[in-house]
Amino acid sequence: MAMVMATVSPAVGSVPPRACRASRASVLRAPAAVSSRHAQKGCFATATAILLAASARSEVRRARYASRSSHVRRAADRPVVLEVQDVEAQSTDEDHKQILKGLNLTIREGEVHAVMGPNGSGKSTLAKVLIGDSAYEVTAGTAKLGETDLLDKEPHERALEGLFLAFQSPPTVGGVSNLDFLRAAYNAQRRAREEPELDVIEFYGFVTEKLTELKINPDFLNRNVNEGFSGGERKRNEMLQMAVLQPKLAILDEIDSGLDIDALKDVAEAIRNVREQDPKRSMLVVTHFERFLRYVEADHVHVMYQGRILKSGGKELADKLDEEGYDWVLNPAK
Ligand SMILES: Nc1ncnc2c1ncn2[C@@H]1O[C@H](COP(=O)(O)OP(=O)(O)OP(=O)(O)O)[C@@H](O)[C@H]1O
């Protein structure tokens, strides 16, 4: 509104300035009445500007309401990206420890789900089971990515279907530069989609844009994958991989651990960036920190305990966990 008044002031230069003055509060409260008073005094430009601004404000309100209600309406209609039903899984070592004990989870297109829970609940195991880590064997249940039965697929096939895992402790790949690694992964996707591969020059142009968006030093490309990288640099490198591969569902396992405050914000911004570029992308974020969920704007929060999801809710659940801890969820009778 202040901008509108400033814009019209040259147009009312010939009118005595006092006559054109209107308090912001009165304009916001009763724009039609204030406008008509100005018109009666001959300040037609001001009168028109007040009405235009009022109409623009109600348009904005209407648009906001429409977008909010269509968001709510669409949430339940969006296609399901991940459907996990009654999954049980155990370790493949000699202990055969049962870790997932009947886990259910549905993620729809464009949603960000957070999984929280005490240490040892099975959060990382869930992430690794979904990408097909051979340290775990699924003994019951189903997991589908769209229409694809994930559990029938090899890990690289799951990746080609659009599943991505950012590791809690990203591994080093000695002797392979980030540029070669990213180009190989990206071209594998293009081959699977029967699209022509990008040569080094073409890929360099593509990846450079991503580096700029994510504020990552171009030196990253020439360094071997995660070799000599600090903890924070490794996490940023995971974000770079996610931005290049543009997965349907990205699983981020404690991507926020070990980050300083600025790095945490940068990683969260990278996540928001990827979502803004394609609002259909979905994410499953494993974290211990409510603050991180605020940055990444999680839609759904789940508490996992002893291999199951015990409670689900919206962002407010993370706030409550932050204030009160897990005890009220784990021992509701207390
Ligand atoms: N390959 C494995 N073999 C045997 N036990 C395992 C294996 N992987 C995980 N576990 C055990 O399963 C339980 C769940 O581990 P997991 O790493 O999934 O928990 P988490 O919820 O991610 O914990 P944190 O919050 O500490 O990262 C733990 O007790 C862990 O020791």
TrEMBL record:
GO molecular function terms attached to this record: ATP binding; ATP hydrolysis activity
InterPro entries named among the record's database cross-references: AAA+_ATPase, ABC_transporter-like_ATP-bd, ABC_transporter-like_CS, FeS-cluster_ATPase_SufC, P-loop_NTPase
UniProt superkingdom: Eukaryota
Classification via SMART domains: AAA
Gene3D superfamilies, A to Z: P-loop containing nucleotide triphosphate hydrolases
Pfam families: ABC_tran (PF00005)
Coiled-coil annotated residue ranges, if any: none
Keywords assigned by UniProt, alphabetized: ATP-binding, Nucleotide-binding
Domain ABC transporter: 82-331
SUPFAM superfamilies linked to this entry: P-loop containing nucleoside triphosphate hydrolases
The protein's name in its UniProt record: ABC transporter domain-containing protein
